[in-house]
Amino acid sequence: MPDLSPALRKSLNLIHNFAERESKARYKRSVLGWFWSFVNPLTTVVVYGFVFGVVFDTPPPPTGSGRAQNFGLYLFCGLITWSLFTGVVNGCMGWLAGVSDLRKKVYFPTETALLGGAVSNGIQTSLEALVLVSIMVAFRNISWTVVFLLLALILAIVFALGLGFIVAVSNARYRDVQYLVGVVLNVGFFLVPIVYPLELVPEHTRGIPTRLLVEWNPPALFVEIARDGAYFLQVPSITKLLVATAWSGAAFTVGWVYFRARSMEISEEP
């Protein structure tokens, strides 16, 4: 094992402790515990699957193996990625607020609280991903390309952290930010092809390149990469992978620099 510097070792220990704290607090005094982490996405899949797959009779694309054409599975691939993204963005504001008293009493790298929370969310999402993979195995729709589901989740969490660093700092001063973020994410859900195939989006709407905007916005890229690997059993295009990686790297870098620059200032916030 490489010899880590004391500062890095301390930061990793803090991230681990905050992740453990968040995981324990999430289902404190709950009888079923982690089981509840599956209920929300599965319920959403059932509801949207019924509305769009039964009521509106929207035909989902066939799976990569051609052995199934299931709207629930199509939804599940997208919802896992979207739920991780929104969970981290929203969570960052709460995780920072949760250590507000502590950071006034003792110095520690404040970003470790957000990173720890993101790790906890990542663990929960990995369990949901295992359920998805198990279902895909049952449908005999599985291939090595499922690794791109993991890649999509990693890119989504890195991008979400970048945004989370920024909104957490803003929310520390203006509490309205958390409500604004909630509204934006609710609207954004329908700008990502989760409950509908991308092909249903018109190429142009009143001169606006609608499909282009939907296809290349960051959350949509993460969803499409996840679907390509887990549902369609194909390798995502290099362009799609490069653009998604660029979005994640840029967002995280900007968010990290902004958060670090404001870290001392937010420690003085009430």
Question: What's the helix and strand layout?
Answer:
Layout (H helix, E strand, L loop, with lengths): L5 H21 L9 H20 L15 H28 L1 H6 L5 H28 L8 H27 L2 H14 L20 H7 L1 H13 L7 H29 L4
Helix pairs in contact: 1-5, 2-3, 3-5, 3-6, 3-7, 3-9, 5-6, 6-7, 6-9, 6-10, 9-10
What report would you give on this structure?
The protein has helices at residues 6-26, 36-55, 71-98, 100-105, 111-138, 147-173, 176-189, 210-216, 218-230, 238-266. The protein has 270 residues and is mostly helical. The chain has one domain. The longest helix is centred in the last third of the chain and has 29 residues, at 238-266. It is globular and about 60 Å long. The termini are far apart.
Summarize this, please?
Helices cover 71% and strands 0% of the residues. It has 270 residues and is an all-alpha fold. α1 (6-26) packs across α5, α5 packs antiparallel against α6 (147-173) and α6 (147-173) packs antiparallel against α9.
